[in-house]
Amino acid sequence: MTRLLSLDLHAHIDPRISPADLLDLQAVIFAATRSLDEAELALRRRDSRTVWGVGCHPALAKAQAEFDVSHFAQLIAKTAFVSEIGLDGRSRVPMERQKATLRAVLSTLQKTPRIASIHSYAATQEVLDELEAHPVNGAVLHWWLGNREQTLRAVEMGCFFSVNAAMLKKEANIQHIPMDRLFTETDHPFGDKRSGAKARPGALGNVETALARHFALDVAAFRLALWGNLRSLIEATDCTSLAPKGVRTQLAAL
Question: What is the pTM of this model?
């Protein structure tokens, strides 16, 4: 029987990492990139347990300035994952520039759905407004810090959420997230700095334990539920064929 691995829906990894080092993580990693150039490098790889994303980080001026929607559309044909995209209220990139990029991304995803991990730091309301105006399947709000009303609005809109160790410091951050909309993430090397465990992608033991307790589940049942959520998300975005072999094997084991 296939053992289900931990599931890290958002981590940053150098795309030059060796295949052996990735396998040594003993986890399925959704690896975010921060620019189309980085994504192009990452998508040359063929890793069995890592899903490399296509991203344009809202806080990186160069990535935003060089974003090209045609190039983005070409890249997402090679992967099931889009990340890191979104809005950042503390970015030096003008908000209108960020919104133009996000709107172009969402418009593309309306035609070509993908699992999309979305950044919303200091811009939770603005991100929800954009998702409401340009609805997509597969939206995952990563490191979500919205208030009660915003979280309930996001749930109503069909969004998922990925939770890291930093979010667990305040119960309010996870209080209104349903189990069937939940994923775990490290956001390595940013969201796991004080996780209490060795900081590396896929190191989610403390997060899984805390969330399993929150939902009154044991860790094995909690991890199984996460994989069920991923199956729902992959089916909703029709991306099964784009998932790496190791991910498909895990899904088949459910």
Answer: 0.96
